[in-house]
Prior knowledge:
249 residues; alpha/beta; five-stranded parallel sheet; 7 helices; 10 strands; globular
Amino acid sequence: MTVYFIGAGPGAADLITVRGARILAASPVCLYAGSLVPVELLAECPKDARLTDTANLDIEQITAELVRAHADGHDVARLHSGDPSVFSAVNEQMKRLDEAGVPYEVVPGVPAFAAAAAALKRELTVPTVGQTVILTRIAQRATAMPEGEDLATLGRSGALIVLHLAARYVDRVVDELLPHYGADCPTAVVAMASRPDEIILRGPLDSIAEQVKAAGVIRTAVIMVGRTLGAEQFRDSHLYAVGRDRHVC
């Protein structure tokens, strides 16, 4: 058997990948994060599948479920929101499966920042304006940030910053980025990206905190700060340039 860590996407049920949906439909066991994964996805599971909501389980209880399925000879669809590569807490699960000798694979999904960019109808990298995207979060009581990864340090780059898990602390975000990006820097917050209740907030950096609090956004959101969000005058990319010699790499 195999445990499949599947990125279920940012919220809309039809944003799961074809590969993820195929594995989900064939797995007799499914563990899912009930507070984040759309319940509509569970309709893709086999009718007699064993479904377990992991929202209230700790890491040892989750591992026990995965090891149990392995002992029973069942494939497992382990659904995570977004994409497993960022802020997904799959590392500790894979580590325990390695120790238990349980095989697993990772199936990528649509990350929240990509869904947010789609909602904004923006490319996050714009020629001559910005070519770097920083995915990060801020220090909280539960998890500190490594040295050199605080916003004050990252902000010196001037790159587009995408913050996960930070809407509740939007005042801190603004205070730490204002010295580097300026009060007028284009900023956006997208909550529940791709879902029917999606919320999109836009404005200069110095106004975004007020908007976030007025909208009641405290979770399931990404904050984006950077000049590419408002870029209107920029050079076309070389990729499709009219004068480009397409016989040269």
